[in-house]
Amino acid sequence: MPSLTELFAIDTLLTDDERQIQSSARAFAAQQLGPHISDWYEAGTLPVREVAQEFGRLGLLGMHLHGYGCAGTTATEYGLACMEIEAIDSGLRSLMSVQGSLAMYAIYAYGSEEQKQQWLPQMAAGDKIGCFALTEPDFGSNPGGMRTRAYQDGSDWVLNGTKMWITNGTLADVAVVWARTDDGIRGFLVPTDTPGFAATEMKRKLSLRASVTASLSFDEVRLPSSALLPNARGLRAPLGCLSEARFGIVFGSMGAARTCLETAIEYAQTREVFEKPLAGYQLTQAKIADGAVEFGKGVLLALHLGRLKDSGSLTSEQVSVGKLNNVREALGIARQCRTILGANGITLDYPVMRHASNLETVLTYEGTSEVHQLVIGQALTGENAFR
């Protein structure tokens, strides 16, 4: 019987290097992360520093960046690694994405040479943790409304405000903070031991539990002029970082979908209902077939976007297409696979409900489905319907 990827001959579309990176990431994830993830999820925690250092040893952090200790892979290779990490859990891919495609990318794309040398090698190794502080309690889908503000006092900057839903916020060594200034929205590198900085872990989550989420506050946080990201001006800069992270989600969500489908297929083959395997019933096969088709289409879309990114021609609207489609379909696959597992599907003995719950968050963060629909709609009609 063909596997899901064999059904669509996915491997024939990959280079030898891409297959090697995907295989290495899959083996690492299965051996080092898989045995622990249900316990981490149930406990609502993640050993971020230990996992980050393991990611660093494998070259997963900022892997598509060049120099400064980064692996310098292609975008497609990075996407395939995201797929294998999220096949274990979305929280683990979030750690990888926030470190590499948000915090590290912000420094890489907009920082000074001194800032890059100071932070990127240690972050690539997982020895220093970064977070990305854009979202505020009252401004999620509309980051341009942010109230966090920075003003100049002599040669220093003084930062005040709050941020929310910040992955790794309580564990980070440096926060990439976006604030409104007299010169528009600017980015700052804030060491988290700076006086006036505070981080509080957000508990009581029902999704993405194997991930550390925090609220941040800044009370007259004084920063030297060297903390300013010199090449980041306006909202385009943080949105550019988000586009990098969304690209990883396009691939990663398909990893979660694959795990759900593989689990449901194996379960249906061994679970007997009315004296024959559950897999022998037409309704079960219809669910599996529909899910497999959407999975295959999603992976093909991800690979196409990866090739576009590697050629330098990928647009933000195309990333929105990938994020909207693949997360939405992955969530649908997870929900349908849960029904195949019946009551067993709601337990942590199987990964399906955990993935379904996580994907509810992935559907929302880094642009809700509604936001991406409006991005695509504006691209096709020329009309801005956000307001």
TrEMBL record:
Residues 15-127 form the Acyl-CoA dehydrogenase/oxidase N-terminal domain. Residues 233-380 form the Acyl-CoA dehydrogenase/oxidase C-terminal domain. GO terms for molecular function: fatty-acyl-CoA binding; flavin adenine dinucleotide binding; glutaryl-CoA dehydrogenase activity. Transmembrane segments: none annotated. The keyword Oxidoreductase applies. InterPro entries: Acyl-CoA_Oxase/DH_mid-dom, Acyl-CoA_Oxase/DH_mid-dom_sf, AcylCo_DH-like_C, AcylCo_DH/oxidase_C, AcylCoA_DH/ox_N, AcylCoA_DH/ox_N_sf, AcylCoA_DH/oxidase_NM_dom_sf, Glutaryl-CoA_DH_mitochondrial. Its cofactor is FAD. Keywords: FAD, Flavoprotein, Oxidoreductase, Transit peptide. One of its GO terms (biological process) is fatty-acyl-CoA biosynthetic process. The keyword Oxidoreductase applies. It catalyses: a 2,3-saturated acyl-CoA + A = a 2,3-dehydroacyl-CoA + AH2. Pfam families: Acyl-CoA_dh_1, Acyl-CoA_dh_M, Acyl-CoA_dh_N. Residues 131-221 form the Acyl-CoA oxidase/dehydrogenase middle domain. Belongs to the acyl-CoA dehydrogenase family. This is Glutaryl-CoA dehydrogenase. It comes from Hoyosella rhizosphaerae.
